[in-house]
Amino acid sequence: MPPKLILIIEDDFRIAGLVAEVLQDAGYETHLVNHLGAARVFGASGRRPDGIISDLVVEGGGDPARLSGELDAIFPGVPLTLMTGVPPNRRAQLGVAHERVLEKPFELSMLLGAVSSMLEPPELLEESRA
């Protein structure tokens, strides 16, 4: 089985590189882009990621509250985890209501757990909650 492909959208190259390295070491394939326009180009190439890790505030992303919808329009049904240093109360003020958020700074084990959880099929998540 080929490795799962994770699209990383992050404009801080240090963070993007670290996230990619950790995920690659864990057996994932990664593709890095630094703005939403590059994510659109990647989407137009016909490749479909298995999951997306994106900074909440990215170049070309516009309104942070709309980022998940914009990414869903490019990659329908692909699960998304947001990374952000924006505190929860400020995210609420911005209208960001996304269920999977990885708050910066985070432990690398938290990143791996977030990606693993993001990639679980919905039916397995429902079974584990029951």
Description:
The chain is of the alpha/beta class. Helices cover 44% and strands 18% of the residues. It contains six helices and five strands. It has helices spanning 13-25, 36-44, 67-74, 88-94, 108-119, 122-129; strands spanning 5-9, 29-33, 51-55, 80-84, 101-103. The protein has a five-stranded parallel sheet. The model has no long low-confidence stretch (mean pLDDT 87).
Number of helices: 6
CATH class: Alpha Beta
Tell me how many strands there are.
5
State the distance separating the first and last CA atoms. Answer: 29 Å
State the fourth-level CATH superfamily: Response regulator
Strand order, biggest sheet? Answer: 2-1-3-4-5
What CATH architecture label applies? 3-Layer(aba) Sandwich
Mean pLDDT: 87
Q: Based on helices, strands and strand pairing, what is the structural class?
A: alpha/beta
Rg, alpha carbons: 14 Å
SSE run: EHEHEHEHEHH
Largest sheet descriptor: 5 strands, parallel
Bin the strand percentage.
15-25%
| CATH topology (fold) name | Rossmann fold
Low-pLDDT segments, ≥5 res: none
Portion in helices: 40-55%
Provide the domain count: 1
Tell me, briefly, the overall form: globular
